[in-house]
Amino acid sequence: MPKGQSSSGAIGATVVVSVLVLIGLGDLPYGFFMLLRLATCVVALYLIFGASLSLDDWHKWALAAVALLYNPIIPVHLMEKSIWIIVNAATLVLFWAVSVRPASPSNTAESGQV
């Protein structure tokens, strides 16, 4: 796949996390939120290293920050569910922005596409 184009794997992973976040709006046990942390952390790392996306440096740094925030090993506790809802929404915006990002003109020219 040419660099800079969206990856079906990236989109699929983003869909999975989106569904988990929507489910997480309900009143669920703590174990579900640990699963959500793990899934979000893994998808952030996948978008950086495994999805073959052409990302700007700020995308990589933002995704790395998301991976650290959601890591299940040393969890960050924001205490209020309302804060997590805002953070989750911002995370989904970032995931979707990098997953469906169109190829930039410079990357398209480098790959020989018109």
Model description:
Helix content is 66%, strand content 0%. The protein has 114 residues and is mostly helical. It contains 5 helices and no strands. It has one domain (8-99). α1 (8-23) runs antiparallel to α4, α2 (30-49) runs antiparallel to α3 (57-70) and α3 (57-70) packs antiparallel against α4 (81-99). It is globular, with a radius of gyration of 15 Å.
Task: Name a few traits of the molecule.
mainly alpha; 66% helix; 114 residues
SSE blueprint and pairings:
Layout: H1 8-23, H2 30-49, H3 57-70, H4 81-99, H5 105-110
Helix pairs in contact: 1-2, 1-4, 2-3, 3-4
| Overall shape | globular
Radius of gyration, taken over Cα atoms and rounded to an integer in Å: 15 Å
Number of domain units: 1
Count of discrete alpha- or pi-helical segments spanning 4 or more residues: 5
* End-to-end separation: 15 Å
